[in-house]
Specification:
Length: 152
């Protein structure tokens, strides 16, 4: 699961340069965000499940759930260039990055993974303490390349 989490972090780092408001936003793994200034993107561990097909467990094939959070300042304003308007633009850009089907090729080429599918939920917004947090659930179906799928 760490390989998938690191690959997703690398994908976001690679693609955020195409979004002016995201290109300088740090991407960190959960637990590394304490000293990082907002805005920031956090990749968080989720769950993992072994995949079965017709009751047969597929060796090495897993569904890995991750959460990707965008932390910004929670100020409300609709004017362009304000923290709120920038946050909405960043949310849109991050959603495009996570949902981009080209991520499959990138993830397949990294960390010895074979990725079959990538599903992204729309963002859920919450305000906690001094931050606006937009959370995206990501489900990746993958296999380590050194564990070719086979029935057991």
């Amino acid at each position: 699961m760490n390989q998938v989490k690191q690959a997703v972090k690398s994908w976001i780092d690679d693609q955020k340069r195409n979004y002016s408001l995201l290109e300088d936003v740090p991407v960190v793994l959960n637990g590394q965000q304490e000293d990082v200034v907002m805005p920031l993107i956090v990749v968080i561990d989720g769950s993992s499940n072994v995949i079965e097909q017709n009751g047969v467990r597929l060796h090495g094939v897993m569904e890995v759930g991750l959460t990707v959070e965008l932390h910004t300042v929670p100020e409300e304003s609709t004017q362009s260039g304000t923290p709120y308007a920038d946050a909405v633009t960043m949310e849109s850009g991050l959603f495009e990055i996570l949902g981009n089907r080209k991520s499959l090729d990138f993830l397949n080429a990294s960390n010895n993974l074979q990725v079959f599918d990538n599903l992204t939920s729309s963002g859920i917004i919450s305000v906690r303490d001094d931050r606006r947090i937009t959370s995206y659930d990501l489900v990746i179906t993958a296999c380590l390349n050194n564990q070719q799928p086979q029935s057991t």
